[in-house]
Amino acid sequence: MRVLITGATGYIGSRVARRLHAKGHAVVAAVRDEASAARLRDMDVPAEPLRASLDDTEILADAARAADAVVHLAFEHRANDLAAAVGQDRRVAEAFVEALAGTGKCLIGTTATGVVGNTGKVPVGEDHPTEPGYPAAIRREVEGCYVAAARRDVRTAVIRPSILTHSDALNSVAPRLVSAARKAGAAHHIGSGENQVTCVHVDDLADLYVLALEKAPPGRIYNGAGANVATGDVARWIGRALELPVASASREQAGALWGPFFAMLLALDNRMSNERARAELGWRPYEATNRLEDDIPLIAARLA
After folding, report:
1. pLDDT in the model for residue 133
2. 263 Cβ neighbours under 8 A, 6+ residues apart
3. Per residue in 187-225, pLDDT tens?
4. Which domain holds residue 109?
5. For 182-203, b where at least 16 C-beta lie within 10 A, e where not — what string?
6. Per the domain annotation, does 276 fall within a domain?
7. What's the DSSP call for residue 172?
8. Among 290, 283, 120, 260, which residue's Cα sits nearest to residue 199?
9. Which of 145, 152, 181, 219 is deepest in the core (most CB within 10 A)?
10. CA–CA separation, 239 vs 230, rounded Å?
């Protein structure tokens, strides 16, 4: 198939593009400018570049019509303006839906497990409601666009990457936590550290995108959660790797250490079930990849 992908120079998107290529698909990657096209080449991502930013919805729609499937991963994080970023994401989703309506082609969107907010102590499925007043809940409106598009003969799916999507690479959340611990002289968690968040190896997550492209029924959402880990355990793994003590921090203190956005995410009790992806797609995370506790020492060594 000819697959259009956005976000192919990103941490997750580059892995998805490589997985698609390995499966024999021809990949077309939307890039916003020549610098992004150069980065695509430098990263050795096997894709044909298409000059289009997320604001170029007409170009993206035309490219979608020419493709056999679309995988949309790009999300333009805007400091202190989540609503604007989500509005842009919704416009892109709507443009893709309009382009593919009536074709039966596959369209995969991306949000995050964090859109649900606090879940309580039991892992929850994809239909669990978002806690009232949680800021990131507006991203679920975009999920609704994809789900509704299934009624217009578009084979849509939404993937929710984990809060701690990891590998030994240095462009994810875990390296930020390791660097902050080294700078502070201690590895921190918020409060008691008993709250849990989702984690997944980035290669397993890339596999989930490809499985959804190949097998997902229309209108499905999948939690890209390989496991749920206590934030206190994450701090202990970092402390052990760096030979540093572990300490508790308030959310405000954590914001100063990691940035307010990551402090918000790592203060959540966000426990997700992956049973739907296992049952419907045959997804098997962590069968052949490192777990987070294995990657943290590798990250620490690379940052030394």
Report:
1. 86
2. 190, 251, 252, 254, 255, 257
3. 999 999 999 999 999 999 999 999 999 999 999 999 999
4. 2-162+199-224
5. beeebbbbbeebebbbbbbbbe
6. no
7. S
8. 290
9. 181
10. 14
Check residue 206 and give its pLDDT.
99
- Spatial neighbors of 110 by CB under 8 A, at least 6 apart, are 7, 12, 72, 73, 75, 158, 159, 160, 161
Rounded CA-CA distance 17/22 in Å is 9
pTM exceeds 0.70, yes or no: yes
Residues 233 and 220 reside in one and the same domain: no
Q: What angle, 0 to 180 degrees and rounded to 10, lies between the N-to-C axes of helices 231-242 and 173-184?
A: 60
Q: Quick one: pLDDT at residue 117? A: 95
* Residue tagged 């993937």 (tokens): 159
8 Å CB contact between 47 and 27? yes
Q: How many residues does the chain have?
A: 304
pLDDT under 50: residue ranges of the chain: none
CA 193, CA 248: separation in Å to the nearest integer? 8
Whether residue 278 lies inside any domain: the answer is: no
Helices (H), the chain: 11-22, 34-42, 57-66, 82-100, 139-149, 173-184, 202-215, 231-242, 251-258, 260-266, 275-281, 292-303
Q: Are 218 and 228 in contact (CB under 8 A)?
A: no
Say if CB 143 and CB 112 are below 8 A apart. no
Domain count, the chain: 2
Please name the amino acid found at residue 226: G
